[in-house]
User: Fold these one by one.
Assistant:
Number 1:
Amino acid sequence: MPFKIMCVAGARPNFMKIGPIMKALKKEPSYFDPVLVHTGQHYDYKMSQIFFDELQIDPPEIFLNVGSGTHAEQTARIMTSFEEVVVEQQPDLVLVVGDVNSTAACAMVAKKCHVMLAHVEAGLRSFDRKMPEEINRLVTDAISDFLYTTSRDADEQLAKEGHPDSGIVFVGNCMIDTLLALQPQVDQSTIKEKFKVKTGEYALMTLHRPSNVDDPKVLGGILEALSYLDAHMPIICPIHPRTRKNIREFGYQDRFESMQQFMDIEPLGYLDFVNLMKNAAMVITDSGGLQEESTVLGIPCLTLRENTERPITITEGTNYLVGVKKDKIIDSIKTVLEGNAKKGNIPEYWDGKAAERIAEHLKNFIAKS
Ligand code: UD1
């Protein structure tokens, strides 16, 4: 009997990680019976379905349709629905990715149902417990049997937290598997023509973290720094639903409109977005994933946060931890505009084969048990 692996995805940043894992598991039907569960944490076409289409991920076998809510509401709804699925389907292992609410909720359900648990992207720590993702990471790692990591510093962190070496497996970065595999399709995107921008002559920006967009002062300061950049080049900014809502509520619409070249647009699909990223002069973001993708694409990344759970993108990649203060953001923008940004290197095992390594590890585990 093949090993039944229930893979969980819920929110946008999960889909590019789960895609290559499902593909790698499906290649070995005598070992694995993979089942994809989509919790429905993200549900808008542009936050979810478009990724299944573009990344050619087969539709999920199970859709939980949990939707939005407070953290407790959303987590509880995912747990209640996922528990029914686990009880009915009796998987041999639940595999969760990343650090969203769906990750931690399904991890807890799995272990309480005495099912083995694997966490992909384990061991990342911002050491900022006000970040919901940090809580999700801590909770998930604490109870996982297999901790698949993207960097050696994550291995060290997990060892420090008392995890036995046998459960920690350095496999590389599944999100980068997708990034590398889809480069031909990315290069076919005509999105630059649509926005009338040229390679190396615009900035790409995303902003959605509660710490940046829920506080009017912080968001206001960031917008002021952006006006400096706006005088030099267009800024393309696909806006997350949360950010759009807050801009309206804080009455900041006019600050956007006063920028001459700023383009606030709807969330983009993966192929268009990566095309814009790989051709940008710089990326400005508070996202975790973009810090990694820009490192692989060799594009300078200014991270508008005080900490990062992905330090390797700074020590080895193109990322700068800039913070959210206006003057600091402007200084960093100047460094990039003057052509003085670091070039960076691609971290070890960010080579397109991370999902294969996970499948290989699981195969060996099954063969031995
Ligand atoms: C979630 C993740 C975050 C990730 C982000 C990427 C958690 C704790 N956070 O944050 O780590 O970086 O996804 O996008 O899991 N909404 C829509 N349409 C959707 C989904 C959400 O309009 O398809 C709106 C709703 O108003 C919702 C809000 O966005 O209340 C926030 O959604 P939620 O899933 O709670 O968290 P994100 O901020 O998206």
Number 2:
Amino acid sequence: MARIVIIEDEPDLALGLRDNLEFEKHTVAHALTGQEGVKLATQAPTDLVLLDIMLPDIDGFEVCKRLRAAGLTMPIIILSARSQEIDKVRGLELGADDYVTKPFSLRELLARVRAALRRADPGAAAVGHVTFLVGDRRVDLTRQVVIAPQGETPLGYYESEILRMLYEKVGQAVPRADLLEKIWGVGLGPADRTVDNHIVSLRRKLETDPKNPRHILTAHAVGYKLVL
Ligand code: CA
């Protein structure tokens, strides 16, 4: 998961990119202008920027220059309708990492995004390979196991997905309805116990005392939260 800022004034193109990147579990922020883009990319830790050149205010080259001048080192991939060599050279000289000419294939762009993220952070880029400690146990979401001093316990698919969502918002309450919608793709029914039943079983695997959980907590009337 990475935070990606898209700076692109064509709303349809930006929307398509956003959907695809969010599908790959990234967080996406989108700006329609260069100045707004600079703001988005500097106000929160950003892992990658997709940058159009022709923007309504300052152009992409200027955005690139300002981001680098602010000391930011995240990969910047330029998206541009201009294909002249001179533009490529200029973009790369100003600190961009890669250059994709419009119209581009979405698949190719996504591959380049993955490659750029991998180069920037080789550790995190084993995509989906997430492990973390919950108390004295280690959760490995890639292998879908909980590793306890006594041995390993397998996690079911739904348990892993719930844990993944809770971990992405660690310390914050995640609404039950969000879990249902994102994992099961359904809305919350009036007496829906689906999520709660999986939480009971997760607590058995992760908590020392499942009746008095210390890590998978109930957020009253909302949902659940993970505390490490
Ligand atoms: Ca444009």
